[in-house]
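Structure ticket #2291
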Amino acid sequence: MIALLIVWSAYRLIVHTRLQQVLAERHTRTEGAIEQAKLEISSAEARTAEYELRVREARASIYRQQEARRQRMIDERSAALAQARSQAEVMIVNARTALEKDVAAARAALQEQVQPLADKIIDSVLRAALAVEGR
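Resolution: structure written out below.
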């Protein structure tokens, strides 16, 4: 029994105290590593959230730029279309004016030719009638 008490006392003095210190240190390091890992995970999550926010902002910026470019192109097309319409209207007005002038000139020319033609026709008809009577 004395030998058992000596072995137990030696174990307690030599091994047990040191073993408890090593286990406590290991537990402290493990807990510290777990806490450090948790901090790094939360830091990584924060950086990921910030990255995703920047990606969303970049996408929104690109969309706004595309929308502005599309609106600018629509405005340019509308302006070009309005200009083409106004030029077409001017051309139509000019063409109508020229056509009306041509019609008026043609009528005036016809009016000038009506009387001499009428005189020639009457003259021809009268000659033909005299030739038929003179026979």
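Closing remark: The mean pLDDT is 91.
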